[in-house]
Design brief:
The protein is built from 8 helices and 12 strands. With 252 residues, it is α/β, with parallel strands linked by helices. The chain binds zinc ion (ZN) (3 copies).
Length: 252
């Protein structure tokens, strides 16, 4: 878990609330992202504005692919920081996303995709569209899982016995059917109060219980939730994720 925080991060700029000023390191939440490591490969889900700090903190020394859930700023703005991996690995890094997500990334980072003569180093990436069908990344199957993020449909991903469902306010029935038999479910639980584009603690408890996931970890958390107190109120198989959390899951 590279980042368990909401779009503005925790602490939040200018805020003096109990969570933003907490001394519990689990209340320090960078923007939302996870790293999936297997067979010497590192597959990143989303490049947050904190990606550089996250990579340094987690001692990430290689990057083999990036999967994008959607193109909101808190999920893409660290893309430029893949460059050190290009220098080290001397090759392109594939990035995967829905066509509309890749189109937004092209608009956000036009210099990466222009064929103009370059005077500086730019990210060396190779865009690969995903269409809802499962795809393989270095031998592991990733199943896109459409979820509703307000009115927008974005992707979560299932891999083996785990699934990562960041920003969502609703999960269509067809997608729920792709989420049976999970050992580990990471899911958005922004806060207690309802939000038009995000899941809440109560809604995500219901989702985890409906799916029968053995363990669930909440992420994309705002400063309304202090780690210790919020976790003490949860069922025992549901925990708050925190930056630096490492979980081992079976590839299925
Ligand atoms: Zn987000
Ligand atoms: Zn605060
Ligand atoms: Zn979003």
């Amino acid at each position: 878990m590279l980042g368990s925080g909401t779009s503005v991060g925790v602490p939040t700029i200018g805020c003096h609330c109990a969570v933003c000023t907490s001394s519990d390191p689990r209340d320090n939440r960078l923007r939302p992202s996870i790293l999936v490591s297997y067979d010497g490969r590192n597959v990143l889900i989303d490049t947050t504005p904190d990606f550089r700090s996250q990579a340094l903190r987690a001692h990430i020394e290689r990057l083999d692919a990036v999967l994008f859930t959607h193109a909101h700023a808190d999920h893409i703005m660290g893309l430029d920081d893949v460059r050190p991996f290009n220098f080290r690995q001397k090759g392109n890094i594939p990035i995967y996303g829905a066509p509309e997500t890749l189109a937004s990334i092209r608009r956000s980072f036009p210099y990466i995709f222009e064929n103009a003569q370059r005077e500086t180093n730019i990210p060396q990436i190779e865009a690969r569209e995903i269409d809802g069908q499962a795809f393989h990344v270095f031998g592991v199957e990733f199943q896109p899982v459409p979820v509703l993020h307000g009115r927008q449909t974005i992707y979560g991903f299932r891999f083996g016995e785990a699934a990562y469902l960041t920003d969502h306010s609703d999960i269509p029935e067809q997608s729920m059917q792709r989420l049976g038999g999970l050992d580990v479910l990471f899911l958005d639980a922004l806060r207690y109060k309802p939000h038009p584009t995000h899941s809440t603690v109560d809604l995500s408890i219901r989702t985890a219980q409906t799916l029968g996931a053995r363990r669930a970890f909440f992420t994309h958390i705002c400063h309304d939730l202090g780690h210790e107190r919020a976790e003490s109120l949860l069922p025992s198989n549901i925990r708050l994720a925190y930056d630096g959390l490492e979980i081992t899951v079976r590839a299925e």
